[in-house]
What we know:
alpha+beta
Amino acid sequence: MANQTQKNFHFTVDDKHNRTYDEYYRDPKQLQMASAGLGLMIIAVGLYFAWSEGFKPGGIYALVAFGMVGLVFIAIAAVLPKKVGTPQTVYDTYPLAPAVIADIDDETIWIMALVDAATDPGNGERRGLALRAVTALPGHKKTVGERVPVTAVPGRRAVLKNRDHWAEMTLLPIAWGTPDKSVIQKASHAVPEGRWRKLKQLQPKFDEVKNTKTKLLIVDGKR
């Protein structure tokens, strides 16, 4: 849940547009296909062993063993979409955050956002800078400093220390969910101007954020 520094931005996701541009879902889909393909390949190897052994006990045991491993990979492929959630659900669930184009490197666009990385919003904000490399930002000018409203999705949590904040945050531009520039503009206006100004002040920290392992830098000074 978001604290008082954050709020969600609700809009209707355009499915066709989202499938074209949403890089957050592109990677899980590729992983899903790879997992299913590997599972089928493992089962095929088991079948080959069983056939080469004339379907004798040794070959059958190999088939069962390979089949079980293959089914695990196929099951992972089936579960992945449910774990990620639908684009509409993700945009509806997680808070809006201000981001800007911080750097452009050939075809790579680096967007940096001011996020609340607190794992428990009830204990106060943990202000951080999150960074993401993207290849497309429809509806935006490809210039450094361009405002890019995003949805900030928390990732994994630290295991041993710094458990009061997320170890990484994933940024989803509103522009991936809609071709309507007026919706993007409304999202931009929904972010308090003070947070846009703060992000601009922190923009020189781009290289520092980029050099972090998970592209997240906590900047509120708490320990």
